[in-house]
Amino acid sequence: MRRNTMLFTLLGALLLVLFLADLAVGSVAVSMGDVWASLTGGECDPTTRSIILNIRLLKAVTALVAGAALAAGGLQMQTLFRNPLAGPYVLGVSSGAGLGVALFLLGAPLLGVAGQGFLQSLGIAGAAWCGSALVLALVMAVSNRIKDIMVILILGMMLGSGISSVVEILQYLSNENALKSFVVWTMGSLGDVTSGRLMIMMPVVVVGLLLSVLSIKPLNLLLMGENYARTMGLDIRRTRMLLFVSTIFLAGTVTAFCGPVGFIGLAVPHLARMLHRSADHRVLMPSSMLLGAAMLLVCDLLAKTLAFPINTVTALMGIPVVILVVVRNRNIF
After folding, report:
1. Burial class of residue 268 (count of CB atoms within 10 Å of its CB; 0-12, 13-18, 19+)
2. Which of 74, 57, 72 has the alpha carbon at shortest distance from 300?
3. pLDDT in tens, 238-278
4. Which of 243, 239, 215 has the alpha carbon at shortest distance from 88?
5. What's the distance, Cα to Cα, between the start and end of the chain in Å?
6. b or e along 31-44 (b: 16 or more beta carbons within 10 Å of the residue's beta carbon)?
7. Alpha-carbon distance 9 to 15, whole Å?
8. Is 108:114 a contact under the CB 8 Å cutoff?
9. pTM above 0.90, yes or no
């Protein structure tokens, strides 16, 4: 207990340092003094204050929210499917969002209706939400009839592969400008989230995180398998629904507003397990949220420093963790 308390204190302090560093680092160098003055209302150059409060603060808060959401979703899916390589997009949520965006950016111009006001008002975020919700509705409908969670996992993966094929067809048929816009979206970005979008994104993610917290006890029961959980009185169907809805709120929302940011949900839960040496979700869930937020802030710092898309940095940081998990599970070394 004392060790976990110390670790949570260190994680909280690390998160604060990374948050302030993310506000200071960028194309224009800003001192920590100016960052603190801007946040606390002290004396600061108006231009510097505007950069920090109107641009960098939005991006840093987005990183906090998105990182926590993806990590919590990943932990849920890994426990539900009892698969260490499951992530928040295992149900095809990311593919569904990609299909929605592809239809908006690539499909609409093919039909000659890209300039209509309705499609313009729908936007990338709305299209991604619709695609994610459609995939989740299909998976939930299947889960009502199928009891084997591994069958649902396979169906979700096959559904995602089928959707990816449709997206590739749209890419092949689309014009150059539409294709470029879609490719940029697939790289992921924290900077496209405006204050208005953040006001929509944050409440939905908070609801998803609250559902994750409510799922802690069922997740602990699922560690021993669904049959054991049933003997302990757990309603498996209701628990699945709760976890699926939480996942669409978490991963679906982040994908809609930030693009398909990968590997955070896959890698971070394993980091939490290694750090705490525990499988108790009362420890892992809050730790994963903190680590996810911290890791995405680190990725954002590196992306700004190297001028790389955020998705390339998350992949470079997440892949070694995944390889380590595979190596440890297979006892290769």
Report:
1. buried
2. 57
3. 898 898 889 888 988 888 888 888 889 888 999 999 899 88
4. 243
5. 31
6. eeebbebbbeeeeb
7. 10
8. yes
9. no
